[in-house]
Amino acid sequence: MTAGALFAEVPALPLHTAGKYVAGAYIVLFVLVLVYVSIMAVRLSRIEGELGELLGMAASSPEGERARRGEEGAAPSQPTTNGERALDGERESTPA
Q: Which of 28, 45, 67, 77 is spaced 20 to 30 A from 56 at the CA atom?
């Protein structure tokens, strides 16, 4: 017998029996989505806190003070080897 013929012969669950399984599946799905959203909210709040701390550190640095006052040379671009230039401590590759 093929699988299609086997499923054709197996009766479906009666509606009064299947309802509790459908409700249980929806509850499990809802709990999983709720757990996922709460994990993402915790991660987002942690990242926002770290970002605020980094912004505070950047504003209290000498370069941040100059940038806030709008002075020239607040964030100088320092040329490096191989066509790269350093911007605020990060390296950015440029085509050679």
A: 77
